[in-house]
What we know:
single chain; 81% helix; rod-shaped; mainly alpha; 0% strand
Amino acid sequence: MNKHLVHGLIVGALFTAAITWIAASDAFTEGGLALLASVVFGLAAGLCIGGLMAVNFAMLGAEEKLTKERALTTTPPQSAVHAHA
């Protein structure tokens, strides 16, 4: 796996856990369906935002890979090659 993708998944998972915890902590005293609804809402919101973070890291990795490939495949201009001829 790409290191950026792994980092994105880790950051996304931590963000998902934090949002779920914050949403659920408000409903601990209520319990029952209020707690369940808060956990489900927090998990859904966290997965959406965490997924966007993971995709952002993956896109960063893809862009870096493309930049490296372009740097390796570019050739020097002909004027620089024959400058001393």
